[in-house]
## 1
Amino acid sequence: MLKQLSTCITFLFVVLWCAQNAYAGIDIYQFDNAEEEKQFRNLVEELRCPKCQNQNLADSNAGLAKDLKDRTYQLVKEGKSNKEIKAYLVERYGDFIIYRPPFRFSTALLWLGPLLVFLLVFGILIRKRLQTADIQTGEMSTKERERLSNLLENQDSNET
Amino acid sequence: MNRTFFIYLAPFILFIALAGVLFFALGKDPKLLPSAKLGKPFPDFQLPGLHQPEKTLSKTELVGEVVLINIWATWCVSCLVEHPVLSKLARSGVIIYGLNYKDVRSAAIVFLENHGNPYREVFFDANGSLGLDLGVYGAPETYFLDREGQIRYRHIGVITTDIWQNKLKSIYQGLIQENQE
């Protein structure tokens, strides 16, 4: 019984080990140092695949995504900075390829929109707040005084 | 018509405006990306010919005339649909160059033998490097170049007779008439 169990566990380990190796096989890019690898990983996470839209290069299996990953790898190996690599790809594929659009006249509303809405709502709330505060601290007008005293008198007469 | 009326009306107006924007965006094809290369010179390249692997072709082939560059491949079904239209255009005197994109040489040669060759010359881009420099993200695509070798128009997808007659022909004629002495 114990022997069977240990065989079973050994088998499981062998299978898992093989699976791990198979996974490692997918990673075909070799790097000299951890920094290069990190730069490459960050880039392919942040670059968008033009073919299979709404996927980044890292997630996409499209042929074009592979070409773009290869080119990115090559550029990283050449020691290019993130900025240079992005500029290189934008020159070819346009702003679409980066998930974070640059700040321009045409993208101003996109970037500042949320801030504008926030300020608008904040402004409205402040105004409302001030108005209610005014009502609370404000003096009563003569008309209001008259109405109040009338009401109080009526109440008195009702009680008696 | 007092102030509160307008305040209560505001969300409704906002809704209409937003719905309008979204409704008109519905008709747009998100797959049609704006080209980053319009008005820019065609990228430099060194590629072998499809039929002559030993010959190195470069950008100088393309400069001097108004030409079309068609990106195609045998794995691309739409390219087969487009092929007869390109053949017709070539017969009517339009100069078309082919960029065989990420394809197998022998298959591409057989394709042209079977369906006819509308191209003046075919560049063989096995790993898609010129495609990447152009910003190609699928086949077929067709680029319109002026006499200076600048990219003036990019058509994504199949060229049908309809599209040619209604849209592309006038663009092509415009380029032909440009700086014509």
Note: The helical segments of chain B are 3-26, 77-91, 105-115, 129-134, 161-177.
## 2
Amino acid sequence: MNRQISAVALASLVLLAALIVGTTYWQTWAEAGLAAREDNEIQRVAQFEIRRGLIYAADGKTLLAGRVRKQVGGQTLYFRRYPTHGFASQAIGYSTATRSRAGIEQEENAFLTASNQDLGTFFETLGDKLKGTTITGNNLILNLQVRAQRVAQNALAGKCGAAVALNPTTGAVYVMASSPTYDPNLMEQKGGYAKIQATKAPCHPSAPLLNRATQGLYPPGSTFKTITAAAALDDHVFTARSNFYDPGYCTEYGKHVSNALDQSGGAEAFGNISLFEAYVHSVNAVYCMIGQKLGAARVLEEAKKFGFYAVPPLETPANARSASGLYEKGKLWYPKQPQYDVDPGRLAFGQERMLVTPLQMALVAATVANGGIEMAPHLVKEVRSPGGSLVDRTAPQRLRTVLSPKTAASLRDMMVQVVERGTGTKAQIPGVQVAGKTGTAEICQCSNYDAWFIFFAPAQHPVVAGAVVAESQPNGFGGAISAPIAKEIVQAILPVASKAKP
Amino acid sequence: MTARNRELAYLIVVGALTGLGFASVYIARQSEVSWGSLSYAAFFLGLYLAAHVIARVAVPKADPYLLPMAGFLTAVGLTEIYRLGPTDAFRQGLWIVIAVALFGAALLRLRRDYRLLESYKYLFGLGAIVLLFLPRLPGLGTTVNGARLWVHAGPLEFQPGELAKIFLIVFLAAYLREKREVLAQGRLKDLGPLLLIWGAAMLVLVETNDLGSALLYFGIFLAMLYIATARLSYVAGGLALFAAGGFVADREIAHVHERIVIWLHPWTTTKVFCPLTGTMTLRQDCQSYQLVKSLYSIGSGGFAGTGLGKGTFTTPDGQPLIPYVKTDFIYSALAQELGLIGVSALLLVFMLFVARGMKIALQAEDGFSKLLAAGLTFGFALQTFIIVGGVLRLIPVTGITLPFVSYGGSSVVANFLLLAGLLLVSNRANATQ
């Protein structure tokens, strides 16, 4: 019988050896695949075992995202708390046990959980692992300025809209406000998500989770004239002094496209007027004619130079950022034959099917402010290890060169005059030269408009540029509604920014 | 060094390892575990020393490695059970005391000649069948995870299949010793018993809904039949018959079919019907939830594991992550905390145990002893393969326990009896040499 017993013994050992092979497969080959599965709670829980890094405002002191300790099933887990209860919520996002993450919390998760590919962090984390102590994530210090952000949020409260302000020479984002906003602490609470969704606002759906600054798509209205003017000047087709005759309307496809209404209720008519003055007073008919002369393709090309048709870079998830451009049936639209498919006159003053994000328009203003060079916007100023040493500092990054310095200077002069004596006088600040452009975008056959203002200041040495939009304002002119908000934001930033400069 | 002194030395090593294990759990989970937990290690060292003293008296010449290895496996299991739930560890501890007591009683009662069991072979056969059908009795049996393997009597939970396995092996060893010459001739009319046992295995399959149990009993039978008759054709024929039975079961029994579907396609990308809730969900959120979560647990252990007491077995809101992690799925808990290094070492101990067991079968003098030792050892190996293979998705998952390691009184008792059997055979073989 011994021969058979030996055979059975061998078979038994082979069976057990197969178990070692099987285990090896799952713990080495298949490990990464298993870890990447989204229903893998162990990976999710593991992230809560890490003392998630903190998020601070630009001053390095104001805590925007903190943490609390909880004992769950014998494990110490760390959960997020947001002590400011809704400061730039859409930009910062949230990190919860149940509904995962959004915003910077999602995009910068690697830093916040100390799983970033940085040598210093790697050794620190390895040390913690070997000692068996809790891993602590890296802290983020954002560019968001407490006072300016508060001012923007308060000014937008009760409205639907967004405001973005950034440094045109570095791209540092000082303000990113989206209204209505929400308290991210609710995400963790029972019924909190429904409560957020039920937020009351004058727009439907109120969508508080939507980051209107980067995702909201609005017709740019007259702010788009900045791009049309840029195309006209860069091509030397026109100069700022080029003269036009404004009868109060422009004819497109045999129909009148009228200017905005004047006090007496009729369309304004300026008669003989230059490109420069038509910008200052935002005369649609003149820009309609410029658009017809340049052609839709040329205007679109200029918009693309500013970054339209591309998603602007930022430290938030890509699906929370939209590209600006022509939209057809809710999708970004690339006209095959722009000369036939797109109405050049209406495009020139920001109507047609043109939709933009506030961030993109802020970048347009910033590009003009920065002599034609567009800087990449960034929310994160620096990353610091829990001990306080610097892990990473975001360096200013040139995104693209859009305009010649000469064109940029002409546009700046035009924008200065808009605030000095044109449609944007409500943005004036004593002692500071503000440059801006209003926009009053038609959104329906009604008297409600999206009110725009894009701006930078001080005009000669800009430290802040931005865009403000307020949705669907009754009789709402950009100059009347959004320009004052821009003014408040600039006032909040200027003393801080001038102090920061040596 | 004599065999028993060697055993004592290894038991002290096992005791030290147990202390180390409990200390790691204590360090990792101080918030809910007290220093008192270390008394577990001391208590079990004491218990094993008692078992050792009995072995010294009853089976002085027996293999010195088996008892320390069984002690080691039990300690690993107990440490992990303790880590998962300290109160369960206390109950498991009580079961181990009972198991060691029965182990001692069996050694002392049978130390002169265990071969007297041969004369009760039909009683054992009948006992095995009765035990197997206990879970079927109304009011007594319960369905756990779709399979009927458990008996409930008051506060007692019992998997009679564990004990049935031992009874079946004793019966087969005696029966095959008697009939092996006849069966070896391979005449058609002698194949009756083979078909009978195949039928019984299929009946077990139908009654328990558990493919793994059926495979375990039938596998033990085939291995012992092969050892007794040396006819590979029996093994081939038996496997073919089992495959045919399994194929029919797959088509006819919903639970068996479900287990096979889970095994082949645990993850779906589209929603499929979930019979548990009656809605459409992804399969990994429904039927294959347990298997998938267990694989995540194994995968997250990686090469070195998280360390004892540092694994993740609850969700952030405190819900348990893997159902039946203490019993059927203890291997995936161990794999997460001990890593590839740890569980490979554990499996090597299982292999060593099997190697020693088979060596005893080779050394034994008479047919009954050989068949008994080989049957017990093969049963041990096959059971390990079926449960761990199920957890690793090598075969469909089944609801049986990992010998010595899993939580469960019946399992511990049955395995200590198995150990007693091997030591008795070993003692006799070494004494007569």
Note: Chain B is about 70% helix and 5% strand.
